[in-house]
Amino acid sequence: MTNAFGIGILLFYVCILIAIGVYGGRVSKITREDYFMAGRGLGSIAVFMALFASNITAFTIIGHAGFAYEIGYGAYGYVIGWSIFITPFTYYLVGYRSWLLGKRYGYATQPQVFGGIFKSRLISLLFLVLLLYYTLPYLVVSIIGGSLAFTTVTEGLVPYWLAAVVIIGISLIYTIPAGLRGTVWTDIFQGTLFLVVAAFLLSAVARALGGFSEITGQIVESNPAMLQRSLSAELAPINWFSYSFVNSIAVIVFPQIYTRILAARSSSNLKQVSLYYPLALAAIFGISTLLGVWGSVAIPDLSGKDADNIVPLLIHQFLTPTWMVLGLVVVLAIVKSSIDSQLLAVAHLVTVDFLPRFKRITSQQAVFRGRILLVIFAAVAYYIALVRPGAILTIAGFAFSGFSVMLPVMIGALYWPRATMQGACAALVIPAIMLHLWYLDILPQWTTFGFMPVFPSFVLAVLTLIVVSYLTPSPPPEQREKTFGIFDRVFK
Amino acid sequence: MPVLTGTLFWGAYTKMKFKTRLVLIILIVLIMFLLHNSFWLWELDNRLPLLFGFMPFAFSFYIGYALLAVLAMRLIIALGWPEPPEEVINQISDQELTDQ
Lengths: 492, 100
Description:
Largest sheet of chain A: none
Order of helices and strands of chain A: HHHHHHHHHHHHHHHHHHHHHHH
Number of helices of chain A: 23
Shape of chain A: globular
Radius of gyration of chain A: 22 Å
Number of helices of chain B: 5
Shape of chain B: elongated
Number of strands of chain A: 0
Largest sheet of chain B: none
Largest interface: A-B, 61 and 56 residues
Low-confidence stretches of chain A: none
Order of helices and strands of chain B: HHHHH
Oligomer: heterodimer
Structural class of chain B: mainly alpha
Helix content of chain A: over 70%
């Protein structure tokens, strides 16, 4: 599948990542703020690419294209439609107020922000536990998906275990020395790379299939149902509505996304990101959708896991071997830019929100321990990715929903001075338990009234926060002033 | 870029009370949610011609939706995203963080 030119591209790509890691390590200071937060100095392009590249996973090119292959053009709106607007909106809704508190009080993570607002170590601990609980399986699934994609694109030349080693190993090479700065710089490089290459890939596939209009004409003739959302059982309105609460509003709750927002240099940087984010999201998922749907007529009769491989199959069947290498680079770029940020996020959370509970540590010690934790989490994730235990995969299956149902507490804490610590605790725990009862089939399906479990859990979180807060004493004025005094001075 | 970030029009909006502006923002979000869940428009999926010869309505709707999202975000920024006063965001130094 390779030629000298292709191998050259691959080596060039890896060398750039290593160079970024080495240079990033040299210019970074050995302080907690610099290592985990890049000194809170990220500019517009850095924040934009950091959020975008961290948010795009192997699912975009592999899973989503496979979904579009089976469902048709409706997959585009179903999976990403609401996200196009609401994800950047949450960067304003939750991101900006959190950023203000981060700038003012030095908060760097959700446990610190929301533990600080409620002045509660219990809230801080609950956020820490839930974020780790959902992020670690999500990280493992990202590694599994990326490694499988790597193996597919190389036609089995690189076995699964080696693909996982390569993906994790390269991520660590620049993340360990350079921390957030290293991952953000590589995000700029990798995010630009996968957007540009994916656009060229779409154009090349279209040309190979006879042109944009020709391939679409074939779909209209041979499978017109691909154009009509109302013909798909999967896209039933109740599913479409429910899915609005799954991936789109979960993004701001991901610790790797939240921390990057707090690391922005200025409010203007966040505004620029929120403004242009819809276009980037629409572009990458649009490309993936078109490739998937076109694949349904170019290589018909695939199903399940085979359909997920439609993009590598299209490249293999219709393009030159060099494109295969470029496709591999795109897969590596997409996978690694999300895995490195997840690894750094979990190491960051444990370093700054868990270890100091037992012993005060200096800024330099935090960096040292963070680096060790990066290696430990990478090794654990690798082992789990090899073993693939069912329990971990089950949790990963509803991790997005788990993140989503934490959002009402985050919004309540930032917008409602009457929200209490007890209300927030209950609104974090009860919906999480209900989500498990529904996803593990302990409660009968009819109890969700036909919706996906995430929707009733979300509503339950909102109601629990309101009811329990009103049943418990109002937060003391000085506690409210600490948060809402800041907001009152900004939002006049 | 003051036009794109909405700061150009900030003066006009600041005359409204913040709560009024917040209501307008909620209205924008609701309109966007309604548009995303506009199931009645699905009837047009097989009736409208392909945009640029290759984009059926189920696809091109979300290209338009993305452009509308940019416009919506620009309005939201203008309505409810003021720049913070410098004294509000005085950052705590890393040494202070270590001492906490």
